[in-house]
Amino acid sequence: MAFLGTPTKTAEIINRYHFTFRKKFGQNFLVDANMLDKIIASAQLTKDDCVLEIGPGIGTMTQYLAEQAGHVVVVEIDTDLIPILEDTLSDYDNVNIINNDILKVDLNALVEEYNQGRPIKVVANLPYYITTPIIMGLLEKHVPVESITIMVQKEVAERMQVGPGTKDYGALSLAVQYYARPEVVVTVPPECFMPRPNVASAVIRLSLYQTPPVVANHPAKMFQIIRASFNQRRKTLANGLSNDPSLFLNREQVTKALNNMGLSETIRGEALTLEQFARLSDLLFTVE
Prior knowledge:
By secondary structure, the chain is of the alpha/beta class. It is built from twelve helices and nine strands. The strands form two sheets. The protein has a seven-stranded mixed beta sheet with strand order 4-3-2-5-6-9-7, with helices on both faces.
C-alpha cells in the first residue's frame, strides 16, 4: 500500500469506497506529505513508543506513525472509515483500530492494555469541534502521557501558549501550562487539507511535566477559581469570584486575599499568572 499523503491518493481512496465527508465529525484529511513529515519529526518517535492517534481518517498519518513507532492505537468514531482503515493499514501488524468516540473511551484503561500503563505519546489531527474536551480529558484525568503532538485550529494553538494580559489568555492557557510546556511547531494553511477548512491550523507539541511548574495546595480549587475568573472576564476578580455560586466566597474574603498578595481589588483574572492563581487559591481555601 502506497503512502496516502497526497490529494491524488486520498481522492482515489475516497472514490473507491464512495466515502462521504460528515461535517458533524469535523473531517478534514491532511494531504501534504511535507506537513506529515514535520508532524512525525516533532513527535520524536522511537520503536519503544506506543502512540495513540485520535481521528485517523483514512489512515494517512497512521502509516507514518506505524513506520516510526513500536505500536499505534487509533480511535475513530466514524464507522464508515473502519473498513477503509483495515485496508490502508493492512500491511502493519503493529496497529490496533478502535471504533469508538474518544470522549467515551477510558484512556487510562487503554494505556494499561496496550502499553502496560507506561506513558504513551499522542499524535493526532484533532477534530476542531472537540479539541478542548480531548486535551482536557488527557490532562485532567492524569492519563500516562509523555507528549501530545496535535493539529488544531491556529487560534486554539496560540491560546494554549499565551501569557497574562492578552485577549487569548484564559482557562485553557492556564490548564495547558500547568500540565505541560506548549510549543507551536508549524502553521498549516487550509490548502493542505481535503476538504479545505475555513481556518488556518497549527501543530502544537505539549511536553508534559512530571511535576507541575507551580505548587497549589488544592489544584482542583485553583482551577475552579480560574474558570470562575474567565467565565465573567469583564468583571473584577473580587466581583467574579464572590458572585460564583460554586465557590461560596464573599467579596471581603477575595479582597483580603488580593491585598495579601499586593494586588488591587479591581484587578481582573486575565492579569494573573499561573503562580498567582495558585497563591490566591491557597489563601482562599485550606486543604480539605
